Amino acid sequence: MMGLKSGVNLAEIFLLEFLSAKPSSLLQVTIFFATWVCLWLPIAVASTIILPKNKDTSASWQPFKPISAEQKLPLLTLLYLIAPLVLWGANKIFSNSFSSYGLVWDWSISQSLGIGFVIGATGLAILFGLQTLLGWVKWNVAGKKIISVTLPILLVAVGISAIEELIFRGFVLTQLQQDFSIYIAAAIASLIFAVLHLVWEQKETLPQLPGLWLMGMVLVLARYVDKGNLGLAWGLHSVLVWAIATIDTAELVTYTGKVPQVVTGKYGKPLAGLTGISFLLAIGAVLGLGLQ
Q: Are 200 and 72 in contact (CB under 8 A)?
């Protein structure tokens, strides 16, 4: 009986300590994403019911069916519009600020954004230039189509990249560093960043997971090089999303098949191939020069 009573007392003490303790960084991150989804989901379901599944406006919503391309953009927009509100709430709870995540609104962030954009654009030009010279890709340039998609995609890319950097290289990385070294925190934050891309599409995203994880690590390095600010990472992220989305949407590139997809990227996705991985490593090496 004494042993049982002692066990109960210890359990009570443990429970009280657990309830009074500050949540661990992983729990904090989990609560953040759960809250984000819970706020977004009712709006997303309502929007999915209202929006047609295809161009036939008479088409009705059917539960558990894949969303259409027409529905994806509004749902994605809603998701990212809610994110700053959730982050604002997290700031109040954890006594943080957007500046602590690396978002400082001054001239320096504009400079870093531009530098990141230039570095990424130069790297992509070299990547696709080499593949063109080697005969791995052919270009299908249609001027009017490029013009019609370039600016809208650029605006979307800059907006999405800003939110993702604020969340993953900002909030998530900052919170994880409370309990982990920068290396472990970066690896975990990058893993979360990569895996969450599976939410929208699985088949083509799965082969990209290693590349997405490495991209996350490079963007962490960019924040570190930028002395904790998000500008450099934001610029790099924006140009990657903009260039790849433009190439896909405008169907600018055709892979010739001279080399296996493991080289150029499965399903035509650069991050799912050795060339894309090499590109990210090269960008990381360039960023590393800024640490010297």
A: yes
